[in-house]
Design a protein that fits this description.
Length: 281
Amino acid sequence: MRIHQLDKTLALAKDYWDTKGKGSAMMLTRARICVQIIKGWRAEEEELCPFHGTRLLTHLSNGRSPKTVQSCYSAFLRMLKLSGEVVEAWPRAAAPPRKLSRTLPHNWKGLLREELGFRTGSWATSRLFHLLENTGMRVEVEALSYDAWKLHTTSSRGEGGQHGYLKVVGKGGHERLIPISSRFYKWLEDNTLSILEMRRLSYSAHLKQWNAACERAGFPRENWPTPHDLRRDYAHRVYEGSNSDLVLVQRLLGHASPKTTSEYIRLDTLSKGRKALGYDG
């Protein structure tokens, strides 16, 4: 297969995955990322071979987590297999490292917020920080996507001003509603243009600014927080503020399984369990 045939192959894979329902949209998105990277090499007449797989893995690793690299690359290989290509000789993506518990630096949110807001070149990432902190959205497939979320207004005004909510389309095309405060609603309205600018930047560009802010703040490199930690922090706050309502946290985060949600609030669960059982005196 030549590189210029990848669009046709992707269309055939879409037809197949559309019949499979759940998870097909994400599979297609991941395969499309790989196709766009390869087409960017401008070598349409080259025959696809394992060398292109090695080169693709190198490009995917730039600014993406090992888990994302593996999922995108696996979707691309599945797409090739659906078209009849033999991929056994292609390289395999490295398995994501086992998750280790990290101790986030004290007051990491306040320090990062200050660093991102202080630097002129980091303003767009500062907007992303504020958005993630107040909504718990996923970064790449939701917060930075043009069509993944929209601001809606409620029919009544609260004491602090106009209230609203965000309608978010997450993984698998599933919709969810995220309530927001009147203060954050006003912030979204006042920063419409800067949020558009934020969405124009790629995740890797935001991550570069984020990591630079972590370095300036003096965080130990092994304990650098990630943008996804704001989603975890959001989950913790909802869990604590709702009297440990795991179902509510699951719905606001858009998780398909409560098992995934329980991983987000694992430490709080252990702490509350010890206290409930009288183990902490």
